[in-house]
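Minutes, project huddle
Topic: does the predicted pose make sense with magnesium ion bound?
PN asked that the exact inputs be recorded in the minutes so nobody has to dig through chat later. Recorded below.
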Amino acid sequence: MGVMLYYYTTVYDSIVKGMASGACIKLPCGNFYFILKGLRNCRRNFSWQPYAHMSVALYRKYRPRRFSDIIGQEATTLILKNAAATGRIAHAYLFCGSRGTGKTTAARILAKAVNCLTRLGDVRLFEPETLRAERSEVFDPKVSDRRDSVLRDESFAGVGEPCNDCLACVQIDEGRTLDVVEIDAASNRGIDEIRNLKEAAVVMPSFLGRKVFIVDEAHALTKDAANALLKLLEEPPLHAMFILATTEPDKLPLTVVSRTQRFDFKRLRSSHIVEKLKKIAAAEAISITDEALRLVSLAAEGSLRDAESFLEQVASFGYALIDGAAIEEALGRVNIAKLKALVDAVLKKDAKGIMAHLRRLDEETSNIAALHKDLMRYVRRLLAIAISPEAAAVYGQSFSDDELRWFREQAEGADIRFLTKLLKALLDAQPHIHFSSFPIVPLEVALIETITQSDSSL
Ligand SMILES: Nc1ncnc2c1ncn2[C@@H]1O[C@H](COP(=O)(O)OP(=O)(O)OP(=O)(O)O)[C@@H](O)[C@H]1O
Ligand SMILES: [Mg+2]
Ligand SMILES: [Zn+2]
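Predicted holo structure (tokens), as shared on screen:
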């Protein structure tokens, strides 16, 4: 055992030393460094944290704590804030939207807003009579007095935001209260878990004003569990509220959806993502160029959590300045200039040029699936601009002026029919690229086929 331990420690040490000195360890199947990079690419949210000062993941450290800090979901946060300010909180909410767009964050803020002691005056003011009666029966008068004597801070009156400072807010933030329960429905999807939830829901809150149940990944509940939840949503105890969060609302029974107030969280614009990443980079003293930020934001595909994880991942590589090339290397993403050169060759129907570009890209990037996605997005934008040049304005915030000029120039000379064909070929190639052990080949075939076929048919 001792020997084995020694063996592992030595191997581990040599790997770490090898990496620290910049050396790459050669394995029969390739380069160790790239295997690590590949591993990192397989799990989007996986982040490698060699530095002690980054022990809390950036996306957790910079989780918004007030509705006004949530970006890109203005309509939703405004309604929730107004509901909290006027005490018109529903008993069940459904937050839908793609990953990393602020659903869990908003649920926690709402839980704080309804329980915040600084806002107690607001909340009490609008509390239903029945709930007040129920409360005064249960509470020890001394406790009730203490609650009522909490001074109402006028600066929070009618704002609908939590103060983040009182005991209730702090406890919810730190996950130390039994009255705010987060359930991951993906791993607690059965009827028994919902029964437990029912039992917990009927019990009065222990300290906070309202018990809040946040059911994450609600679509993963089994049919029976969803039906059991239905009963609970139909006649919830007055002191309880439910917030269901899901990335796939279509999988939820309509009967559940119709008993909730539904809010759709939108994928974030890359300009919004860049804005937040800039602030994080400044606070964490990470030097990063605007081009690199743009590449990160595009790679995140509208998810702020992904963007923040990417930033952390790249920062952990220890670059003095993170530029476009660093992002290409770290995330296996290709910059717009290289995509443009490839698309130029395709538009010119230059088979030799296409093969040369693809060979170079294959050498440079370990992530052909991402290259394919980026290329598809590029062609889609080109098509949109070719159809209506005003579409360029929509993309204005995601690209630099130079890049927009390239798009316009390419779109001007391009044939809409050809672009559509190209996009379809790329779409058809997607499953082959994802499951092939030579992902570059289906991409080559798609591009070459498009230019040769369109030559004969046009
Ligand atoms: N709209 C937003 N504004 C600001 N930060 C955001 C926003 N959306 C996500 N984030 C960042 O991403 C992190 C994760 O967000 P959150 O947990 O709310 O996502 P989610 O929508 O619940 O995602 P999932 O569906 O994967 O559970 C937050 O901690 C925050 O740092
Ligand atoms: Mg979530
Ligand atoms: Zn508070």
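Observations noted during the meeting:
- Residues 2-42 form one domain.
- The longest strand covers residues 240-246.
No decisions taken; revisit at the next huddle.
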